[in-house]
Every structure is written in structure tokens, then in C-alpha cells.
Design brief:
The protein has 138 residues and is an alpha+beta fold. It has a single domain (22-137), classed as Thrombin, subunit H (Beta Barrel). It has helices at residues 2-17, 38-42, 124-137, and strands at residues 25-26, 30-34, 49-57, 61-66, 70-71, 74-75, 80-87, 90-103, 113-121. The strands form two sheets. It has a six-stranded antiparallel barrel with strand order 2-3-4-9-8-7. A hairpin with a 2-residue loop joins strand 7 and strand 8. The mean pLDDT is 85.
Length: 138
């Protein structure tokens, strides 16, 4: 009976662990995070930006390691974000929404915050380059 329960628990872990429709691919890429500001480009100025890097990528989201959780007085979890991702083939931009965050533990090899974002929109040519990069990570 104990063995049956152990097998059942193991199978349940497999099913729950594989619930993601889009597999994550480890990728350490530099990126810039900012809040979209349509007025900034009209006046030739750039909005305040945070330098970060990715931990992993998927077709539907990105995990970002950020040194802080705020840009000025706004939290990264407050609204949509503009993410500029430095791929080897060039920079792409996407609009993303934070879906979760956590402060990294002191014993982690990295410092700061892990921020999970969901991709909301991306220009077609950026999507093509992003998808090509993902395929290269398989």
C-alpha cells in the first residue's frame, strides 16, 4: 500500500511539474525595463530605465533578475512594462505584464528580485527573431 501511494505521488508530481504549455529555456541576456511612455518619444527623451538580465525565456513569458523592484517611485508590478531584450541577433522590444515576483534569498548566487512577466504584445519582426532565438536554445 505504501508503494502504491509513493508511485501515485510520483506520477502526480510529474503531471503538475509539466503543466506549462511553453517550456522555459535558460538564457542569460541583458535587458532594459521601463514603463511605456508614449509622450517620451514625442519629446525626444527616454523614460527612466532599469538594467536587468533574463534567467529564462519561453514563448509566453520571461523571467527577469532585477537589482531592485522599483523604478523611481513605481513598482515593476504596478502596470505594463516595456522590455528591451538584447538577443545575439539584435535588440527586440515587447510589452509585458508582471505576473509574480520574489526577492532572491541571500544564499542564491544572484542578488535582487526574480520577476516573472507575461508577454502581451510584440511587433511581428521582433516575434520572429524571438521565436528563432528560442528554437536555438532547444
Amino acid at each position: 500500500m505504501t508503494e502504491l501511494l509513493r508511485n501515485l505521488a510520483g506520477r502526480l508530481r510529474e503531471v503538475v511539474a509539466n503543466r506549462r504549455a511553453s517550456p522555459r529555456r535558460p538564457a542569460r541576456l541583458p535587458c532594459l525595463v521601463s514603463f511605456p511612455d508614449p509622450r517620451a518619444s514625442d519629446h525626444g527623451r527616454r523614460p527612466p530605465t532599469l538594467q536587468a538580465r533574463t534567467r529564462d525565456l519561453s514563448a509566453t513569458g520571461v523571467a527577469i533578475i532585477a537589482p531592485v523592484i522599483r523604478i523611481n517611485d513605481r513598482y515593476l508590478t504596478d502596470s505594463t512594462l516595456l522590455l528591451r531584450l538584447e538577443l545575439p541577433a539584435g535588440t527586440i522590444e515587447m510589452i509585458v505584464k508582471s505576473v509574480r515576483y520574489e526577492r532572491l534569498a541571500p544564499e542564491d548566487e544572484e542578488e535582487g528580485y526574480l520577476v516573472g512577466v507575461h508577454i502581451l504584445e510584440m511587433k511581428e519582426e521582433n516575434r520572429a527573431r524571438y521565436d528563432a532565438h528560442l528554437r536555438g536554445l532547444e
